[in-house]
């Protein structure tokens, strides 16, 4: 594979090559004179919303991140509020050393309206501390809806001084969308990064020159396979990933009742007094209620059809479901998080015994209630 004069894709940053269409960075020779220059993968995403299966591995991502600790930089860590625990980079301090970290919490627009912003901010600060992420500041925003973006820019200006800015985050947290906003407002660079709803869009370091001679460096998203969004068929992402404010679904359940979220996740209320469970998932995700005694039979008979996504032809691509048992103590206000799908709020006066069936490897946990 030959690189062409060290040309790089202006969308994802990968080195351009013209010999192997099945490998990263391929562009036909006829495209080399185009401005902006895009690899075939980015061209298809941008113009046809077409998905490519060509992606780098996680080791490549970690090698890139490992160089940040030796630089003098501001690190902007972008996380997804819809999947906070799933998108947080564990052990970030090992990569960034003593560099300050600005935690930018994206996608606040997905929360239901009339949410207390100060409560959300306090919740994020506590969760970050509990997970060992040391931050200089936390900023809530929605890059897509331009909510709080001015505060992000002001925070970057306060903390970076004359440093470069490294932007890090997992896939699908809205990193490229936010950087595109920075490009339009604070850089002479006209070509935007490729912004796509599919994981792994940014494939190498992309340096964006600032007016003061420093750079914003966009790093590739880390692929965390504990997130459901990394395991489902890419065609199902539009169902799993919310794109509008979530409309909570409230279910009054008796013990020994179950909820199916498509055929991806099952929630069993095993024991406890009749109570409500509030589901915070994409509005497009179908939820089906049944009796616990019928749940196994229903799944086997209707998975991939009535219980979908995934569709029947894509079921084999999803790992088998495994059980996670939890006891919610009396009087607790808790969320049961299923990384990449959302969460189920359990505000129980009497306590509850629940079981979550989720694809093997998907992160499932109980946390303090977000809302």
TrEMBL record:
InterPro entries named in the record: G_CP_dom (IPR030378), GTP-bd (IPR006073), GTP-bd_ribosome_bgen_YqeH (IPR019988), Mito_lipid_metab_GTPase (IPR050896), NOA1/YqeH-like_C (IPR048422), P-loop_NTPase (IPR027417)
Gene3D superfamilies: P-loop containing nucleotide triphosphate hydrolases (3.40.50.300)
Record domain CP-type G: where: 62-225
Pfam families per record: MMR_HSR1, YqeH-like_C
Protein known as: Ribosome biogenesis GTPase YqeH
Originating species: Paenibacillus hodogayensis
Taxonomic placement: Bacteria, Bacillati, Bacillota, Bacilli, Bacillales
Gene behind the chain: yqeH
């Amino acid at each position: 594979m030959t690189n062409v004069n060290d040309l790089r894709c202006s969308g994802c940053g990968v080195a351009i090559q013209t010999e192997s269409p099945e490998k990263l960075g391929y562009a036909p020779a006829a495209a080399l004179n185009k401005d902006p220059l895009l690899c075939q993968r980015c061209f298809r995403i941008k113009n046809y919303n077409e998905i490519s299966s060509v992606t780098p591995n996680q080791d490549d991502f970690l090698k890139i991140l490992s160089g940040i600790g030796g630089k003098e930089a501001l690190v902007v860590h972008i996380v997804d509020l819809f999947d906070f625990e799933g998108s947080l980079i564990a052990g970030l301090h090992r990569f960034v050393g003593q560099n300050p970290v600005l935690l930018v919490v994206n996608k606040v627009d997905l929360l239901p309206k009339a949410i207390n912003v100060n409560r959300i901010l306090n919740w994020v600060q506590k969760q970050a501390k509990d997970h060992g992420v040391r931050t200089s500041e936390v900023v809530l925003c929605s890059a897509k809806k331009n909510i709080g973006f001015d505060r992000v820019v002001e925070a970057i200006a306060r903390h970076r001084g004359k440093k470069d800015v490294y932007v890090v985050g997992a896939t699908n947290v809205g990193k490229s969308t936010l950087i595109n906003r920075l490009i339009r407002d604070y850089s002479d660079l006209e070509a935007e990064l490729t912004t796509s709803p599919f994981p792994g869009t940014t494939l190498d370091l992309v340096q964006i020159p600032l007016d003061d001679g420093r750079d914003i460096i966009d790093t590739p998203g880390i692929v965390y396979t504990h997130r459901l969004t990394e395991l489902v068929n890419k065609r199902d992402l539009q169902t799993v990933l919310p794109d509008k404010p979530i409309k909570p679904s409230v279910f009054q359940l008796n013990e020994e009742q179950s909820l199916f979220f498509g055929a991806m996740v099952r929630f069993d209320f095993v024991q406890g007094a009749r109570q409500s469970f509030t589901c915070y998932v994409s509005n497009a995700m179908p939820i089906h209620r049944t009796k616990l005694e019928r749940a196994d039979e229903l799944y086997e008979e209707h998975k991939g059809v009535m219980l979908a996504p995934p569709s029947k032809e894509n079921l084999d691509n999803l790992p088998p479901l495994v059980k996670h048992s939890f006891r919610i103590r009396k009087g607790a206000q808790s969320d049961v998080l299923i990384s990449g799908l959302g969460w189920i709020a359990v505000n129980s006066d009497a306590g509850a015994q629940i079981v979550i069936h989720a694809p093997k490897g998907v992160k499932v946990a109980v946390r303090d209630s977000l809302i």
